[in-house]
Specification:
alpha+beta; eight-stranded antiparallel β-sheet; seven-stranded antiparallel β-sheet; 40% strand
Length: 297
């Protein structure tokens, strides 16, 4: 196996590891100029650091988000993950509805594959911890063992898509193996909720991942429309059954609406105003749909 020297650097640490996946974190950005040194200094103090995923292959394989590979070394083969025209068109449709890339390349063999650096947080998890199936928020997938299968799941009803703000479709991973997720919030800010034939209600789209065994719906916070209006809670996302939920309770609306890499700070100036307009518009849609739904009930 190719043995590179970057892990011997004092500036690079292995932040987390699961199987052959390693999360490398740079303590500070040393490629700075006098004009950017102040920003980089305070970024290092606030956990704004570059991170990379190193995939170690020993006869196994990994499926990776398209365009994420930075370099590879050793006897590593890459396949496109597309077996034909029909398969490619199907993957394009799935990618369009989930916000993921149409085709995800697979790397197999013996060696190492390094993924592109990111300012986002890398979350490593095993599907066995989710009962063998997990449903992901859009854009969360980064890499997984090639033994992990992928499919697109649709919301159980139209109200879940329109009112839950989770989209009509989500990417679901099932089977056995490790998964690397690219999150805008760190693991330290996540709440892990384990349900056992129970119900979890969340006001907003703060759940970033949940077990595939859970039923997801959107319901009124109270039994009546007037009660929901008086309580000012409106509709809530409801998860029923047995399984696990990862929830980001401190994730602001600006974070969830932007979902952009921290390196794209140049466009962040208008994020707040556009997010506000989007929230207002979606709130109006939810309210109108709720009145219509109540009339039908």
């Amino acid at each position: 196996m190719y043995n590179h020297s970057m892990l011997n650097s004092d500036n690079v640490v292995v932040k987390n590891q699961l199987g052959g996946m390693q999360v490398l974190e740079y303590k500070r950005d040393m490629s700075v100029s006098p004009y950017t040194s102040r920003t980089e200094y305070f970024s290092s103090k606030m956990n704004v650091q570059r991170r990379q995923v190193l995939l170690n292959l020993n006869g196994n394989g990994y499926t990776v988000q398209a365009g994420a590979m930075q370099w590879m070394a050793g006897n590593v083969q890459m396949s496109s993950g597309v077996t034909g025209v029909g398969n490619f068109l199907g993957k394009m449709v799935k990618g369009a509805v989930t916000g993921e890339t149409a085709a995800k390349p697979e790397y197999t063999g013996y060696g190492q594959v390094m993924l592109e650096p990111t300012f986002r947080h890398i979350l490593l998890t095993d599907l066995s911890q989710w009962g063998g199936s997990v449903v992901l928020d859009d854009g969360l997938f980064l890499a997984c063992d090639s033994t992990v299968q992928q499919k697109v799941v649709a919301r159980s009803n139209v109200s879940s898509a329109i009112l839950g703000r989770e989209g009509l479709f989500n990417l679901s991973l099932y089977g056995q193996g490790a998964v690397a997720l690219e999150s805008i919030v760190p693991m330290e800010e996540l709440f892990e909720i384990n349900l056992q034939d129970d119900v979890m209600k969340i006001d907003g789209n703060m759940a970033i991942a949940w077990s595939g065994s859970l039923e997801f719906t959107v319901e009124k916070s109270t039994k009546s429309l007037i009660g929901s209006a008086v309580s000012k809670e409106g509709f809530v996302n409801v998860y029923r059954g047995t399984g696990k939920i990862w929830m980001a309770p401190v994730m602001s609306e600006q974070k969830s609406a932007g979902k952009s890499d921290l390196s794209e700070n140049a466009s962040s100036g208008n994020t707040g105003s556009s997010a506000g307009r989007s929230d207002t518009a979606s709130g109006s849609v939810r309210q109108a749909f709720g009145v219509f739904k109540d009339l039908l009930d």
